[in-house]
Write a structure and sequence with these properties.
The protein is built from twelve helices and eleven strands. The chain has helices at about 15-35, 65-75, 100-110, 140-155, 195-215, 240, 250-255, 275-290, 325-335, 345-350, 360-365, 385, and strands spanning about 5-10, 40-50, 50-60, 90-100, 120-130, 160-175, 180-190, 225-230, 245, 300-305, 315-320. The strands form three sheets. Strands 1-6-7-8 form a four-stranded mixed sheet. α1 (about 15-35) crosses α2 (about 65-75), α4 (about 140-155) crosses α5 (about 195-215) and α8 (about 275-290) packs across α10 (about 345-350). The longest helix is centred in the middle third of the chain and has 20 residues, at about 195-215. It is flat.
């Protein structure tokens, strides 16, 4: 894209109520898959002051004390004091769970992984670009680094008075389609209700969180970055006390920060037979390997499935004019089963999506599902086969 423009992405901390809901749904999923890799799970969590509601569909041979998982997850995030308005040990837990529909099961559970059908219809997008070492868009990766740094500082130095809830927002100036400099960085930091904390919070966040992260990108700091920290001047009431949290309400934070398209399906609380999750992961894997192979500087891939049908109904590739070969050529290579097989059962096998040793879904629900090299779908082992 020619000219100069600004683009903004946001992230949220692990203590944000929506992100906490995501982590609870995925913590329950992790506990179930550890016992029963064939578990069929679609669980949503709603959080408000003093209450967690877990609802959805579940078919499994495993036994998990879900209320204990909920409270443990809340405590692990840092809601351990009653003064926060939400505290793990005293949170009431309500369950409203039923079996997954047998109408769905008959289309998904088959005799072999090759014949396993998709757990739902829909379209999923994967994206990669060469703006960062992770092959992710710069604004969302910086936003994630800020929220991760916030949580690390909060845990390492509790005397600073930082509380679990928070947000980051990063605006990058682009020139002729390439990142040129940081324009604006916004941080919301929940804090204790003490005068010394209120008076120091802005300096703490800028000097101990924002500047160290910005320093990781020296060519993008032109000395004129605008900083906004808690612009209202106060952020004491936060977490589920301040806002209701719901699973799946941060799907843009989870993916590419609005830089690429999104199919609309959330990830957390869903086992990988749901292509909302597994196909979005493999689409990222494909896009990243296309860029890694040097076939394009930017690549977006759409996959689409029909419920109960193993084969994807469509594969679409868009390299936005950056491709070294035609988009149709890349699409053809991705449809070659000797390169990769995009049937759901084989995606799950390829990426180890029900292997508790390879994937812990709770970790995906903290700082984005993409860009973390620990996740199997971030591997670039496919790139040589695409050249």
């Amino acid at each position: 894209m020619a000219g100069t423009y600004l683009f903004t992405s946001e992230s949220v901390t692990e203590g944000h109520p929506d992100k906490l809901a995501d982590q609870i749904s995925d913590a329950v999923l992790d506990a179930l898959i550890k016992q029963d890799p064939a578990a069929r799970v679609a669980l949503e969590t709603l959080l408000t002051r003093g209450l967690a509601v877990v609802a959805g569909e579940l078919t499994t041979t495993a036994y998990v004390e879900i209320a204990d998982v909920v409270r443990e997850t809340i405590n692990n995030v840092g809601y351990t004091k009653t003064e926060y308005g939400f505290e793990g040990d005293t949170t009431g837990v309500m369950l409203a769970i039923q079996k997954q529909s047998t109408d769905i099961n008959q289309g998904v559970d088959r005799d072999s992984v090759e014949s396993q059908g998709a757990g739902d219809q829909g379209m999923m997008f994967g994206f990669a670009c060469d703006e960062t070492a992770e092959l992710m868009p710069l604004p969302i990766m910086v936003a994630h680094r800020l929220t991760r740094a916030y949580s690390d500082l909060r845990r390492a130095e509790p005397e600073l008075g930082l509380r679990p809830d928070g947000k980051s927002q990063v605006t990058v100036a682009y020139v002729n389609g390439r990142p040129d400099h940081f324009d604006t960085i916004v941080m919301a930091a929940q804090h204790d209700d003490r005068p010394e904390v209120v008076n120091s919070i802005k300096d703490i966040v800028i000097e101990q969180i924002v500047r160290p992260v910005v320093a990781q990108f020296p060519g993008l700091d032109n000395g004129n970055i605008r900083f906004h920290v808690n612009p209202t001047g106060r952020f004491v009431i936060g977490g589920p006390q301040g806002d209701t949290g719901v699973t799946g309400r941060k799907i843009i934070v989870d993916t590419y920060g609005g830089y690429a398209r999104h199919g609309g399906g959330a990830f957390s609380g869903k086992d990988p037979s749901k292509v909302d999750r597994s196909a979005a992961y493999v689409a990222r894997y494909l896009a990243k390997n296309v860029v890694k192979a040097g076939l394009a500087r930017k690549c977006e891939i759409q996959l689409a499935y029909a419920i109960g049908v193993p084969e994807p109904v469509s594969i679409y590739v868009d390299t936005f004019g950056t491709g070294a070969v035609p988009d149709a050529t890349i699409a053809a290579r991705l449809q070659d089963k000797t390169v990769i097989d995009l049937r759901p059962g084989l995606i799950i096998k390829k990426l180890g999506l029900v292997d508790a040793q390879r994937v812990r879904y709770t970790e995906t629900a903290k700082n984005g599902h993409f860009g973390n090299p620990a996740f199997p779908w971030e591997a670039v082992d496919l790139a040589p086969k695409l050249i």
